[in-house]
Amino acid sequence: MKETIRLTVRLFLITAIAGLILAFANSFTSPVIQQREKQEYENALKEVFADADKFETLEEGKLNSIKTKIKNIEKVEIAKKSDKTVGYVFKTLGKNGYGGDISMLMAINTESQTIVGFKVLKHNETPGLGSRVTTPEYAQSVVGNKVTEHLVKNLHPDKDNDIQAITGTTISVNAVLNGLNAAIDALADLGK
Question: What is the pTM of this model?
Fold first, then answer.
């Protein structure tokens, strides 16, 4: 009985010390990780909307109003060039991809009503299959489309609202389409 108690106390002490060491290490690495993620996000904004020289986050009240109606919207950035609004960048979640939700950015030029940028930020799709939605070639099937109506997938995209369907990755493409159309709905809501 004494041996069991001694063993239990030892295990408790080892676990407590390991937990304290991990908490101490996390206190130093967490700010660094957050800063790196912020920088990556800012770089992605510049990548998807190259014509903009600065981005402002949409006012929280408006964003919450949109998020209440459109669950896929995470964030909305106002793209500006010389203090003039030239468009928006929507951070959306494509729901129910094969490996889970797909986080992406879609940039829309409000004057031309076209998509000027697209980038997948995070995904867990199958390498070589669903992950094909993250390639620059796939992004080119999204860029240039009009946002006057919902986008649709097509094996041979030839209309202003067609994105590339990829054989064998229906679930991943549907998730991307879900996120893109959420951004189009949010854009319409911003116009009201």
Answer: 0.82
pLDDT tens for each residue of 97-156: 888 888 999 999 999 999 999 999 988 887 877 788 888 888 898 999 999 999 888 888
Pair of tokens at residue 49: 């909307």
CB environment 152-182: b (16+ within 10 A), e (fewer)? ebeeebeeebbbbbbeebeebbbbbbbbbbb
CB 78 within 8 A of CB 85: yes
Task: Name the burial class of residue 123, with classes exposed (0-12), middle (13-18) and buried (19+) by CB atoms within 10 angstroms of its CB.
Answer: buried
Element (H, E) at 17: helix 2-48
